[in-house]
Amino acid sequence: MKNLLMAGAAGRNLGKTEFLCRAIRIQSKYRPVIAIKVSTFDSTETMKTQTYRSFEGDFVVTREVPTDDNKDTHRMFRSGADKVYWLRTHRTALDRGLSALLQTMEEDGICLQTDCLIMESGGARNFIDPGLFFIIQEHDDTLKPSCSEVVHLADRLVKVTGDGWDILPEYLFFEDGTWGLKESAAAVVLSGGTSSRMGEDKSIMSINEEPLLSTITKQLQPNFESVIISGKKEKHSFFGCDVVEDLEPDKGPLMGLLSSLKYSRHEINFITTCDVPDIHLPFVRKMLREINDHEAIISVMNGKSQPLFAVYKKTVCSVIEQLLNEGKQAVHALLDRIDVMELELEGQWYHNLNTHDDVGRYRKSRS
Predict the structure, then answer these.
(1) Which of 29, 210, 227, 320 would bridge 258 by S-S if both were Cys, CB 3.0 to 4.6 A apart?
(2) DSSP state, 144?
(3) CA 161 – CA 141 distance, rounded (Å)
């Protein structure tokens, strides 16, 4: 659900509801916003207030109505939400409660794929893949169990500061049914290869009923300040990104990497190729967060490094130039000369389409 913004918190009183209410205030100026609060309880938890924690069955979904008190769902109304829903559920019934919630929303005419949705929940991330998922945390405080289960799926750990948070709701945007947070970094798609194993140009072959390169850039553009295509201007300009041609032709992927890094105005650059159709943004943001003093972070899958699904600092340009002067064109040669951190790919989302058989397996996995 790319149209859903979801936020949980490491503990209590970290401003989670206020963070989402500010997001509601901003977005409600331009479109209807549907707000959702999910309250999850252990079945053995002491009932503190009968109306809040006592309900029949495993869960209950309520359509909230505006009231002038400090209840979280009523604060959402006052912030500008068009409709507000509240799911109260025992933890063991969260999946069924969420299904009932979404069914209720559909019955009310809400489009679950395009309408602007904002949800306060951490545990729901186990069952829903949203456009953005944040966990709000103060310093390095211990995560409560419901957040520790999903922290690896967070797009960002939002830190509480003296002025609020280190990521403000004003940084977020909602466009074409998708939530986005633009990273202060560039994304580079290397598209200058010969596609010899595929037998046709991979970048413009049809995947998901559109050119493969379009599938990739549409995922990157809402989330990066700059998206660069390393390729040919006459072939790739219509994708709406900056197109950078190799400074010298026929020098392999290292030259494509060097040319793009030199062109980029960002110190930090995410690199991918035109044959990886699905970009798992939580993993990419994790690489961006963890690069710190390293010169690169390289993804690793089944023990094999993927140097072209990685994050590089612009400072590696001088090392690449030295390698090219030595006649070396393989990207792996770069890894021996710079400070690299490896990060294991998580989940089953990563596909690399080098042959028509790869394409067939990918299409089957999505059917």
Answers:
(1) 320
(2) P
(3) 13
Q: How many other CB atoms sit within 10 Å of the CB of residue 131?
A: 22
Neighbours of 121 (CB within 10 A): 26
State the DSSP string of 92-140. GGHHHHHHHHHHHHHHTT--TTTSEEEEE-SGGGGT---SEEEEEESTT
d(CA 225, CA 223): 7
In 10 A of CB 25, how many CB atoms? Answer: 16
Give which of 169, 123, 161, 181 is closest to 14, Cα–Cα. 161
Cα dist. 300→283, 285, 286, 306, 308 in Å? 12, 16, 14, 6, 11
Q: What is the pLDDT along the chain (367 residues), one digit of tens a residue?
A: 999 999 988 777 678 899 999 999 999 999 999 999 999 888 654 444 445 666 778 899 999 998 888 889 999 999 999 999 999 999 899 999 999 999 999 999 999 999 999 999 999 999 999 999 998 888 766 777 777 888 888 888 888 877 678 888 888 888 888 898 888 899 999 986 555 555 567 777 777 778 888 889 988 988 888 999 998 887 777 777 889 999 988 888 899 999 999 999 999 999 999 888 888 888 898 899 889 899 999 999 888 889 999 999 999 999 999 999 998 888 888 998 999 999 998 777 888 787 778 777 877 777 6
With contact defined as beta carbons under 8 Å apart, do 157 and 143 qualify? no
Instruction: Check: CB of residue 158 under 8 Å from CB of residue 19.
Output: yes
Strands of 176-287 (E only): list them.
178-181, 183-190, 206-207, 210-211, 224-230, 242-244, 268-273
Tokens describing residue 101? 């919630």
The pTM of this model reads 0.69
* DSSP bridge partners of 178: 175
Q: In residues, how long is the chain?
A: 367
DSSP 142: P
Beta bridge partners of 60: 88
Reference 187, options 327, 45, 284, 57; nearest CA is 284
Which residues lie across from 59 on neighbouring strands? Answer: 89
